[in-house]
Design a protein that fits this description.
By secondary structure, this protein is an alpha/beta fold. Helices cover 32% and strands 16% of the residues. It is built from 18 helices and 20 strands. The strands form five sheets. Strands 1, 2, 3, 4, 5, 6, 17 and 18 form an eight-stranded mixed sheet that branches. A hairpin with a 4-residue loop joins β5 and β6. α1 packs parallel to α16 and α16 runs parallel beside α18.
């Protein structure tokens, strides 16, 4: 039987694929990365829409594994924009000479396990096939963009694009009539940037989201020196917090303090940079209905203060979910955009979009003409990128079949019936500040592969017992969370994707330290819950 082409194949050259390649080389394994795009960066390669940037503090987001790299790179802003992040990831690719093991413009369409040879065969678009002992998916949690299903979308004669498929060349909005469909995190970032020089902007909103100020600014030379001297402390803090951000829940409950103290605390959070207002709020804000209602009322009043037209302000205040129960977009003068005379907000729940026309689109009430339509309609999250590849495990069973009743995994990184396949950002891994999760997951997979090397093992598969225990833990973590009562990508709902209209426990909602503790116990126990052969 011929030897496989590689020891390991990695799908995707974003942050997780890049770091996994570095770790595989350290293990002495021959690896190849297949990447759909023409460059490294994953999320930061594809999402080049106007306004795209971090909402994690830059210095908490980059790789932490190399102290030399930390000193060599300087972030220019507290929350870096997409072009800078893409430059950073190319800098990393250059420093570690990663491109020699990456094959670009190579979309993986299928991956099939062969039990006889204990290898995976990966098929690329165009038909080329490559084999490896191990298959590692580095395809991201938010990497499968979705478009709505409006009649006539192909007929539009202007320019139209999804934010995740943004052109590489600059787009001018000066004097143009522009539509942005969607007001999630991507839509908010796009809208506030397009509005700066647009001829006329129409925002078509189905569901308003609770947004909070980002408070971004340049990093001063003094701050830069302090950051570089404090990296050990910064990353230790990220290891300790619930979601790997620099912020973590306040130990107090909402009603343990007086109303005046609550208001003062919330004012401080609202005027502080980053996600503190979401993940650094009172500890019961996301579990106690009354506490959440108080916080929601506070933010609603902020919106009313910032938007001059009371009718428009009310359109921008969510009524179907409380603050923080969906992902909170961070913004820079987003609400002030609606005070501009050349910006109009349309409620598509009241007047749904009925069709796209050659010159624009129609709602149930009226017709619009546009030069550019921007679809900020999000992603088929968590499992969408997996659904777009035909994974086949033991007995030819597809991953889609295995997950038909909802995704099941072992610690979010392995699936029973899919030996030697590892998911770096599979469902049920700790999310939050994603690169912190990426580094841990890559290291965990790499340690398992090193353990297999030392023990002379060729095959690793998640056991049913361990998977059942892990999924029970995932379910336990979700109980009592107000977010589980809300339709969002975090509960597996996407109106643009068939079969994703019912809420499920789509993600791990426990703390990152608790996640790592579980994974460390698995490793310390000699991977007893993983069948090694």
């Amino acid at each position: 039987m011929p030897a496989p082409d590689f020891d390991a194949i990695i799908i995707g050259a974003g942050m997780s694929g890049m770091y996994q390649l570095i770790r595989l080389r350290q293990l002495g394994l021959k690896a190849r990365v297949f990447e759909t795009g023409s460059g490294v960066g994953g999320t930061w390669y594809w999402n080049r829409y106007p306004g795209a940037r971090f909402d994690s503090e830059s210095y908490s987001y980059g790789f932490s594994f190399d102290k030399e790299l930390l000193q060599e790179w300087s972030w220019s802003e507290h929350f870096a924009p997409q072009p800078e992040t893409e430059r950073y990831l190319n800098f990393v690719a250059d420093k570690y000479d990663l491109r020699r093991d990456i094959q670009f413009n190579s979309r993986v369409t299928a991956a099939e396990w062969d039990e006889a040879s204990l290898t995976w065969t990966v098929t690329l678009e165009g038909g080329a096939k490559h084999s490896a002992r191990f298959l590692i998916t580095a395809i991201g949690a938010l990497s499968a963009p979705t478009l709505p299903n409006y009649p006539g979308m192909e007929s539009f004669q202007g320019r139209a694009f999804h934010t995740a498929h943004w052109p590489k060349e600059p787009i001018s909005f000066a004097g143009k009539r522009v539509a942005v469909i969607g007001t999630g995190a991507t839509g908010v970032q796009t809208i506030q940037e397009v509005a700066k020089d647009v001829g006329h902007l129409t925002v078509l909103q189905r569901t308003p989201n609770w947004c909070a100020p980002l408070h971004n600014r340049k990093i001063t030379p003094e701050e830069q020196a302090q950051i570089k001297a404090s990296y050990d402390e910064i990353f230790r803090r990220c290891e300790e917090t619930f979601s790997c951000f620099l912020h973590t829940p306040d130990p107090r409950a909402t009603f343990e303090v007086s109303q005046a103290e609550r208001e003062e605390f919330w004012e401080k959070l609202y005027n502080s940079p980053g996600f503190g207002i979401w993940v650094g709020n009172f500890r019961d804000m996301l579990t106690d209905r009354t506490a959440n209602a108080e916080m929601s009322a506070f933010v609603a009043n902020k919106i009313r203060q910032r938007v001059k037209d009371p009718k428009v302000a009310e359109m921008l205040i969510p009524t179907n979910h409380g603050f923080g129960t969906r992902r909170v977009p961070l913004e820079t003068r987003y609400y002030e955009v609606y005070n501009q005379p050349n910006v109009e907000l349309v409620d598509t729940r009241a007047t749904p979009i009925t069709e796209v026309t050659p010159t624009g689109l129609k709602t149930a009430e009226r017709e619009f003409e546009f030069d550019i339509i921007i679809y900020a309609t999000g992603f088929d999250a968590l499992t969408g990128a997996f659904d777009r590849i035909d994974f086949r495990g033991t007995g030819g069973r597809t991953l889609k079949e295995a997950w038909a009743g909802g995704a099941r995994s072992f610690v979010g990184m392995m699936v029973p019936g899919f030996p030697n396949m590892f998911m770096l950002l599979g469902p049920h891994t700790a999310l939050g500040n994603i690169p912190r999760s990426i580094e841990y997951n890559v290291d965990w997979v790499s340690r398992l592969l090193g353990h297999m090397q030392a023990a002379g093992k060729q095959r690793a598969e998640a056991g049913e017992k361990g998977t059942a225990a892990w999924m029970a833990h995932v379910m336990d973590c979700a109980r009592g969370l107000l977010s589980m009562e809300v339709d969002s990508w975090m509960t597996g709902v996407n109106r643009n994707v068939a079969g994703k209209q019912q809420r499920v426990v789509a993600r791990y909602t426990g703390s990152a330290p608790a996640y790592r503790e579980w994974c460390e116990e698995v490793a310390a126990d000699g991977y007893r819950e993983v069948a090694l052969a």
